[in-house]
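Troubleshooting log. The previous structure file for this entry was overwritten by mistake, so regenerating from the original sequence record. Sequence copied from the archived sheet and checked twice against the printout by T.R.
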Amino acid sequence: MNDNRQKVIVIGPALTLSGYGEQCRFALRSLRTLEDQYDIYLHATNWGNTGWIHDDDEEREWIDRMLHKTVIHQQNGGQYDISLQVTIPNEWKKIAPVNVGYTAGIETTMVAPQWIEKSREMDRIIVVSNHSKEVYESTSYGIMKQGTNERIGTLKCETPITTVNYPVKDTSNSNPDDLGLDLSTDFNFLCVAQWGPRKNVHNTIEWFIEEFHDDEDVGLALKVFHMNTSNIDRVFIKKQLANMLEAYPDRKCKIHLIHGHMSENEIHSLYQHPKIKGLVTLTHGEGYGLPIFEAAYCGLPVVAPAWSGHMDFLMAPSNSKKTDKLRPHFLKVDYKLGPVPQETLWEGVIQQGSQWCEPEEGSFKKQIRDLHKNHSRHQGTANRLKKHILNNFTPENMYSQFCEAFAGEQNLDIDAWLTELEAGVEEHE
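Regenerated output below.
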């Protein structure tokens, strides 16, 4: 093994069942392809109230070794050459000669000023979608002279930002028969989401029922959770759902609740279940949209607004020519941009004055009806999208892109960093 490898500390929720957890594991997998160049260390953080993975597989064993190695390294006063910080930008810190911030980005039209300020502590930034990159780069704030209305400058991100999408995962071991999922309806839409404002599950349920009220053989399968996959969470979801359905006592269409933890093989099996005919989402915005991505590369038709992170993978050439322009390969729900509700604002993250997507009711109902009526045609479109994704979003491609973004164009100069650090210390003595 090369003893001159650069020491990389990865800080992120590598063991959590969260979007950022998946993001952190992708980063680790990418860096692992270059273990001849990087000596990898890991500090595992928490993320909200999500559960932690407890898989007993080779990757988990490798992660555990990284954690143990890191503890010993830090007890011996060890330092790092590069930090990779997988979290929201508010938590980024300058802790190594080179610092890389890796974030899912934002689901709205602007980032908070704290994000821009923190970007100055990073040497480069990696985001998961072009939407996140564009919003980060386009957001700016005026710098005002203290005590006056005089603008003396502009607060804007000047750190290089690179987009790296997620890779597809292996679906060869998936088998819908193993799920034991007993759906009483033969034609079912699927919604995979967290129960909350941004995913807009409430409107998804209401508008589906209103459109298919009298269709006995049409259902909506809800793979949802509120905070986690616990029994308490299940009770909460069932109560919320029951309260909603009281308004439709005479409905004939069905609502199927799927709650609890699913392995990757199980979630892939769900997307490929013969009675699941399409994925629907009325999301207000996505940093990337992992469930949408998974459904798409499993060949499931998608109904979604044409805005935010998922647009990176729902577009494909209309034919096999590589020069052909990318076109939508999903059922587009019309939308308008509207203000993020006050109760959804998050200090330092979701900024006052930001907007997000407001899907239009009539357009959604039209598209789900069209998918039901013309499923074979839309399945053909979904199959073409699947082929495009499988060809272009391979692990090899995405790992390579991530490592290139991580390495950047800057050379590691530890001596210069130490000189800068010492100067800063002297300045405050």
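The chain has two domains: 6-165+396-427, 176-393. Archived copy saved in two places this time.
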